[in-house]
Amino acid sequence: MVARLAWGDAIGNQVRYLQSLLRSWGHTSEIYAESWDDACRDQVRSAKSYPRESTRDTVLLIHHSFESKQVPLIARSRGRKLLVYHNITPARLFAGFDRGAVLSCDAARLELLALRPHVDGAFAYSRFSAEELVAAGYRHVDVLPFAIDWDAFDTPPDPALLGELDDGFSNILFVGRAVPSKYVDDVLRVFTAYQRLYQPKSRLLVAGNIHRDAPYGGFLHGLKDLLGPEHIRFMGRVSAAQLSACFASATAYLSMSRHEGFGVPLLEAMYRDVPVVAYGAAAVPETMGGAGLTTLSRDPLDVAQLLAVLEREPALRQQVLAAQRARVASLSQEAVAAQVRTALQGGLEGRMPEQATVPAAPPVELVCPGFVTRPDAPMSRLARELQRRLPEARMLALRARGEEPSLSLGPQTTEGAPVWHFTPDQPVGPTPEPLPGSSSLETAVRASTGAVVLLGTDTAVAQALLQDVGRRGWGVRDAAASSDETAIESARHHLGTRLLELNRADIHATADMLVRSLASKKRGSRHAR
């Protein structure tokens, strides 16, 4: 079951390929959706018909990636249910461009929590995404290998377009929808630096839907005019043959996306023998698997230099291509199909492992994103003091750079104290670069019922949570560290008198105020009962 079945869409392609695998193993398999493209109308059944067609022996694979409004329908359907999580783009990545997408992404994460009691097991296509499922309280979480139909990439290139592009220029390619989360604007900035500093005879190809009349599409066209590079082609939606021509003529593939639950175009570029340069956000490092060039910098000058080195150093280019070929070989259709079958077998046959024990919810969540990565920051010192005074509280922080996502979110000892670590959505940069958000940390807080203390209300994590924590939330603001008026007003609006100012000269005084406030809230709740 999917919200929408679309032709050429990564999720739609995955669903169709999984259906072909299930049928090849002897299962009857149908695709259900709320809506679909005309090109898919013969492949899909209406989701509304599923509850009456389901039996206690059917198994429903629920593919979740954005708002579906299907939770009530799923809840009243019979049979076993397994979640397949493709990840949800953080709403903040659409802020300022698409209010509808912001609301839809927020709603999709609420649905992720609402689906939890209705499913028997959950799968994700990366450890990064699986960590969020664990944070949400799902049991029986596992990573499902992404089954790619490599044969679909073997379409012969469009000869006219290939002849046009194969003209001696260095072609830098990006494939995907032009939406804010893909940061196509950063692709433009990197390409501009590359063209001006290293390769004047270069061209940028952006293959994917772009709506010039939409805010982000208009922004991209305006930025192109402002930066002034030459030979930029917004290809729009392309056919399979045109896409093959783009890859066949590409010198390098460039991605600056801020959030990927997997990232099929990265592997498609590897399959087509195009060296990949990608910003290492979210699940991108997992998808790359050590191949290509993963950059932890968003600086256009740094990334442009990587493109130049790939072009100017043939030995390095061949080394990168060899590693990419090995990565693709490890994901052969036969090997991945066998792994998918093994992963799904228990759920298909109703043999789920014993229920894991869910720990009791802590009474207080101390959210200090920089506790591990910025241990000497004033907020981290306040967090340590609060943890000493509130031993029953749970400390939540971002993982340090280089730490892998985890399918077990128990505490790790940090400076002698238990801390729950969560993977950031983007690499943590050096001080004073702002800390990134974390889908898994934010989901853990949303799934909790305890009081929430946001230590640093200007952080991306806190800003994402302000609306969700409601009256169970407190916040501490460091006036000396931030002057972001928008963040300040948001914190004041949502927290009111529960927003405190950090006293850097007397951390203990701020801790006293918070502990008294939390104790007062606890007494008030007990009296209300």
From TrEMBL:
It comes from the Bacteria. InterPro entries: Glyco_trans_1. The keyword Transcription does not apply. GO terms for molecular function: glycosyltransferase activity. One of its GO terms (biological process) is lipopolysaccharide biosynthetic process. Gene3D superfamilies: Glycogen Phosphorylase B. The keyword Zinc does not apply. Residues 171-318 form the Glycosyl transferase family domain. Keywords: Transferase. This is Glycosyltransferase.
